[in-house]
Specification:
Layout: H1 3-17, E1 26-35, E2 38-43, E3 50-53, E4 72-79, E5 88-90, H2 92-106, E6 112-121, E7 124-129, E8 132-137, E9 154-158, H3 165-174, E10 184-188, E11 197-201, E12 210-214, H4 216-226, E13 231-234, H5 248-259, E14 263-267, H6 269-277, E15 286-288, H7 291-299, H8 304-310
Parallel strand pairs: 13-14, 14-15
Antiparallel strand pairs: 1-2, 1-4, 2-3, 4-5, 6-7, 6-9, 7-8, 10-11, 10-12
């Protein structure tokens, strides 16, 4: 093999073995030696040793073993590797993620909880809930307030099951042609007193904005699907219907239900409030304030109140 061919082979091999890690990735690495202000860590696939700053070693678990040379641990990618700088890692963000996972396990999926913002860090914010620290990536944080203004304030977050994402995608594939999701979103730069409101594609809400209503394309999609329906169960308004500017999606769906000959069942406190406030209550077949209970009833679960009534 000629020298030129060998050089090309080595370059190809290097590209094949190397990996590109991005901020928030969790990687496995081996602590190889002490370095000024931190440690060097060997990460499989990285072109150079990664750096773990001392300030990123702090662990929420006071009983955790101190970091030692030769340790193999999981690390949070704090800064991506590039031609000029090595990848930077964090240990404490792993601890935050673990604590947040414990909190998720202790709550029901879909619950809204209040979290106090402790500090702003690269890639997101640190929050405190019931003495548990959590890390929320900026990609999952939608607020009209600049991040710096969130410190020491409380924000609402929803509990989710990140490990069920693949299952959700499977359901979406199985429901193709029957399951319809929003295709555009009306976003605003604040929940109250917004100064900028615009429509974007679903899943593309800008940083510093919140998705607060469905867009015109989604209205057309949903209302078309309601045509000819025999029974419609509606749980949840389309947006912040209390604000006239952000109520267009909810009004359009309510109007579509009012215009249909279908049996229309409204389940849930917000949905009931929406049809009442917007003047469509007398057009609906049945309105219930028990949204969660209504869904459980549709699942076939026994409702204590219904069971007790049937026993008499």
């Amino acid at each position: 093999m000629t020298n030129v061919q060998m050089d090309e082979f080595e370059k190809l091999l290097d590209e094949t073995l190397s990996k590109t890690y991005t901020v928030a990735d969790i990687v496995e690495g081996t602590v190889i030696k002490r370095e000024n202000g931190g440690y060097l860590v060997s990460v499989k696939g990285a072109k150079t040793e990664a750096f773990l700053p001392d300030k990123e070693i702090g662990n929420l678990d006071e009983n955790a073993e101190p970091l030692q040379i030769g340790d193999v641990r999981e690390f949070y990618v704090l800064k991506e590797e590039n031609d000029d700088d090595a990848m930077q890692l964090s240990l404490k963000r792993i601890a935050y993620a673990q604590a947040w996972a414990q909190l998720n396990d202790a709550k029901n999926v879909g619950d809204t909880i209040l979290a106090k913002v402790v500090s702003i860090v690269k890639g997101g914010v640190l929050v405190d809930v019931a003495d548990l620290k959590g890390f929320i990536p900026s990609s999952q944080l939608r607020t009209g307030t600049p991040f710096e203004g969130l410190v020491d304030t409380k924000i609402e977050v929803k509990v989710l099951e990140a490990d069920k994402e693949d299952l959700a995608k499977e359901f979406m594939e199985k429901g193709a042609g029957k399951l319809f999701l929003p295709v555009d979103t009306v976003e605003a730069n604040a929940f109250d007193n917004a100064t900028d409101i615009k429509t974007v594609k679903s899943g593309a809400v800008d940083d510093g904005y919140q998705g607060l209503d469905i867009g015109a394309e989604t209205v057309a999609l949903f209302t078309k699907e309601l045509e000819g329906a025999k029974t419609v169960f509606w749980n949840g308004p389309m947006g912040v219907f209390e604000n006239p500017i952000l109520a267009k999606g909810t009004i359009a769906v309510a109007q579509a239900l009012a215009d249909t000959d279908a049996t229309t069942i409204i389940g849930g406190g917000d949905s009931a409030a929406a049809v009442n406030q917007l003047g469509f209550a007398d057009k609906m077949t049945h309105i219930s304030t028990g949204g969660g209970a209504s869904l459980e009833f549709l699942e076939g679960k026994d409702l204590p109140g219904v069971v007790a009534a049937n026993d008499k």
